[in-house]
Design a protein that fits this description.
It contains 6 helices and no strands. It is an all-alpha fold. The chain has one domain: Four Helix Bundle (Hemerythrin (Met), subunit A), CATH 1.20.120.330. It starts with 5 loop residues before the first helix and ends with a helix. The model has no long low-confidence stretch (mean pLDDT 92).
């Protein structure tokens, strides 16, 4: 079963571009704010897309699609670990990404955005690896 990762690839490209550009501008400038806001938004979108695609990847491990559809985001990653699709350290980082994302619903302030930036190096590596896992048949 082939899973289309086109949108995830596009999100990764935007992540990479925004992340490279934010490093070229002065913190506190309008450009910095634009790139940081872009990173935060694409981080959220990429996280959601990753969960949806992982759900599709895990579907063959369940008796019914309804069973996999009932899993929470973190449960998806627990099952990915159980089925040796990801390593425990990766899964723990995905949990941190999700916790960070959940904070966006309550705090769109500077501290949250800066915390998201701190996660970006690992997130980019992990989302690229997850894309490879999803594409691997």
């Amino acid at each position: 079963m082939s899973i289309n990762t086109e949108y995830l690839e596009q999100d990764i490209a935007v992540l990479l571009k925004s992340y490279s550009l934010i490093k070229t501008v002065e913190e506190g400038s309008i450009e910095y704010e634009m790139y940081r806001n872009s990173l935060v938004k694409v981080f959220e979108m990429t996280l959601e897309q990753s969960g949806k695609l992982l759900r599709k990847k895990l579907t063959p491990f369940f008796a019914t699609k309804k069973a996999v559809d009932s899993l929470t985001f973190k449960d998806l990653f627990r099952y990915a670990l159980r089925h040796s699709l990801l390593e425990e350290s990766e899964v723990n980082r995905w949990f941190k990404y999700r916790d960070n994302r959940n904070n966006t619903a309550h705090d769109y302030g500077r501290a949250f955005a800066e915390q998201t930036l701190i996660l970006m190096n690992d997130f980019i590596k992990d989302v690229n690896h997850l894309k490879d896992v999803i594409e691997n048949e």
